[in-house]
Write a structure and sequence with these properties.
Radius of gyration: 36 Å
Strand content: 5-15%
Strand order of the largest sheet: 2-1-5-13-14
Oligomer: single chain
Structural class: alpha+beta
Length: 700
């Protein structure tokens, strides 16, 4: 037919056998095309990221460092170092509010998502964009478990994709309750504790089945940042975070407002073990020794120590109270070491705050001893033929180019040696050391336990010798225990949890107890150092009804202040000062250190049931004291009357061994408190401690 033909256009001509697509058909067509290409992209994308996914067969394997558990002398837990894990907690045995606390704060939609939460991720992205920084995370509890079990903490796209993949795999393989149980038993809670059972035991000394609402909230709040929200070192911040968790639990319907109010009204109490952070200085000291004794740990160990946690707590209270009281005088740091008569360390304070500085001033600091070193001079003099009644002369003296002076700036003339000891007369000590030989004084100090370098310069007699508090304590221990030399130690036994003994300290370790002082020299020495307490520079440390003795020490410009004192079979050395070796404001050995010593000893002596200072070995046959020394000591007290005793200070122009280097420690903080009063520290009555503040809700 003329004019007839076929058209191959797509305009829907009458000759086209295929009808034109509707808009809906075109939409479906292109959606299918995109879906195919999207599927191809996802397959390739996940294939690339799945190539080096971790081996999930290690799900139940635990790779951890051996733990070392430290017990005090009575078996109480002091600390656990290394990784601590307890048997897994049974989710069904926990109170309902325990797992619910973690869900409320970490993943409110936990039971309603497939491993990742698009709603939560969108909400977190919006919050972060509004803040201009990361303020909220979108990870689900399942994603956190995947990260903790299999992945590194690196923040990058690859790890995030792998985290999503593993989260979906976990959701496909396990039920929600199984995932929640895995999470609670494997997550890290800080302080070396992995899993809720270990955390409950570490922080509260109880099983997770016994957790209160407030304790559950605190543990749930820890997970955001275990160190930042630690109830041990950051109690206020931890309390605030726990309160946030409680509010979330109320919003989620986990607890009622009444339960929240009850939890807030019952402050959470952290384990006394972890609260005793100053004991960590002692643990650090032992940690080095363990590796010397048994090598690098390859299995869990239990270390039985010599520490008495009750005494340790009393030492911490005394130190903290005086540091707070005397902060305006520039007293920034303190160290304390208490030993029994066999050298066992019963208490150790290495600084004002372990959280601020882990440098152990009780062991590692070397500071000039001042007049606390003089007993080694006096003992050497006694062994050279002097007695407490020997007349000595407090008069100007020159040794080479050096002329020591007394703190009082005056000279008292002739006096018995016992009075020179009690008043800490510099000229007498320097003259005695020069006469009997400073090398002999150094040998005496070495014999009793001083291990640091001892120079033989003339000022050595006045304490220009750098020593540590633990050295001073072990050297003075010979005065307290009947004249026997000891070496301070803190480890009694090391064993496995199954009871196999790895190390046992023998009675003859370190050479055992050797008689270092014979009589009558020990008898004379103790009588003279008693006089320091009854009528000398240490009068402020005297304890009524107790047989105590000791010696003060103060160095140039009040840079270091010491008090080392003892009773029968128990000695405590105290030092205060600054890490940068700058002067304090008029702080002497008879003020802040003596107050710390007295506060600690008054609390400790009833527990110790310490006897009188022992006389030591038998006296030589036929020996008789030349006169009643007690009367002599009374005369010394009469000399002072009601006036404050003079304190010993080697003056600034006296030579020292070498320039002082600041000990490591935290940055110096210069307080802006009012200037101290001008009255004499030994004369001013000690203020009563401030009333104890009631703990705020969830503060520790």
């Amino acid at each position: 037919m003329a004019g007839s033909g076929f058209s191959f256009g797509r305009g829907g001509n009458a000759g086209d056998p295929r009808p034109a697509r509707t808009p809906l058909q075109r939409l479906i067509y292109w959606a299918a095309v995109l879906a195919v290409w999207g599927l191809i992209f996802l397959v390739v994308f996940f294939a690339v990221f799945a190539r080096d996914l971790p081996d999930t067969s290690t799900l139940y394997n635990v790779d951890r460092q051996p733990s070392i558990t430290y017990l005090d002398r009575n078996g109480a837990l002091i600390a656990t170092r290394g990784t601590q894990q307890a048997p897994p907690a049974d989710l069904d045995a926990l109170p309902d509010y325990v797992p619910a606390a973690f869900i409320a704060i970490e993943d409110r939609r936990f039971y309603h998502h497939p491993g990742f939460d698009p709603v939560g991720m969108t909400r977190a992205m919006a919050a972060n964009m509004r803040a201009g920084r990361v303020v909220q995370g979108g990870s689900t509890l399942t994603q956190q478990l995947a990260k903790n079990l299999f992945l590194s903490p690196d923040q990058n796209m690859k790890r995030k994709v792998q985290e999503l993949m593993l989260a979906v795999w976990l959701e496909m393989k396990f039920s929600k309750d199984e995932i929640l149980a895995l999470y609670l038993n494997r997550v890290y809670f800080g302080a070396g504790a992995y899993g809720i059972e270990a955390a409950s035991q570490r922080y509260f000394d109880k099983s997770a089945k016994q957790l209160s609402v407030g304790e559950a909230a605190l543990l749930a709040g820890l997970l955001k940042a275990p160190s930042r929200y630690s109830p041990v070192s950051e109690s206020e911040r931890a309390g605030t975070r726990a309160t946030v968790v409680l509010n979330e639990m109320v919003d989620a319907g986990v607890i009622t407002p009444e339960q929240r109010a009850q939890a807030a009204a019952s402050p959470v109490r952290v384990s006394r073990t972890l609260s005793s952070q100053h004991a960590q200085y002692f643990i650090d000291w032992l940690d080095k020794q363990i590796r010397e004794l048994v090598g690098e740990p390859t299995e869990d160990m239990i270390v039985e120590t010599t520490m008495d946690l009750t005494l340790q707590t009393q030492a911490e209270r005394s130190v903290n109270r005086i540091l707070t009281r005397d902060r305006s005088k520039g007293v920034q740091q303190a160290a304390l070491v208490a030993l029994d008569g066999d050298g066992r360390v019963r208490a150790m304070i290495g600084g004002a705050s372990y959280a601020d500085s882990q440098f152990n001033r009780a062991v590692d600091a070397r500071r000039q001893a001042g007049s606390a070193f003089k007993p080694f001079v006096y003992l050497t003099a006694l062994e050279s033929g002097y007695t407490p009644e020997t007349r000595v002369n407090d008069a100007p003296i020159r040794i080479g180019n050096w002329s020591p002076r007394n703190y009082s700036g005056t000279f008292a003339g002739e006096m018995p040696l016992s009075q020179a000891v009690a008043q800490s007369v510099n000229t007498v000590a320097a003259g005695l050391a020069d006469q009997i030989g400073r090398d002999n004084v150094a040998r005496t100090a070495r014999r009793l336990g001083i291990t640091s370098r001892i120079g033989l310069e003339p000022a050595m007699a006045l304490g220009a010798v750098e020593v540590s508090p633990i050295e001073m304590a072990q050297a003075y221990d010979a005065f307290a225990n009947g004249g026997k030399r000891v070496r301070a130690y803190g480890i009694s036994r090391i064993r496995t949890p199954q009871g196999r003994v790895i190390y046992q300290r023998s009675a003859r370790a370190d050479g055992g107890s050797v008689q270092a002082i014979s009589n009558p020299f020990l008898y004379y020495q103790n009588q003279m150092l008693r006089g320091v307490m009854t009528g000398g520079t240490g009068r402020s440390a005297a304890i009524a009804g107790r047989d105590v003795a000791g010696k003060t020490g103060t160095t140039s410009d009040y840079k270091d202040a010491w008090f080392v004192g003892y009773t029968g079979g128990f000695v405590t050395a105290v030092w205060v000062g600054k890490d940068d070796n700058t002067p304090m404001r008029g702080v002497t050995g008879g003020s802040s250190p003596a107050a710390i010593w007295r506060g600690f000893m008054e609390a400790a002596l009833p527990r110790l049931n310490a006897p009188a200072i022992p006389n030591g070995p038998a006296m030589p046959e036929g020996w008789q004291p030349p006169s009643p020394v007690e009367n002599l000591l009374g005369e010394i007290g009469d000399l002072f009357g009601d006036s404050p005793p003079a304190e010993e200070i080697p003056l600034e122009d006296q030579p020292t061994l070498e320039p002082r280097r600041p000990e490591p420690g935290p940055p110096v903080v210069r307080p802006t408190a009012p200037q101290p009063q001008r009255d004499t520290p030994d004369q001013r009555p000690e203020p009563a401690p401030p009333p104890e503040k009631r703990a705020d809700p969830l503060f520790f």
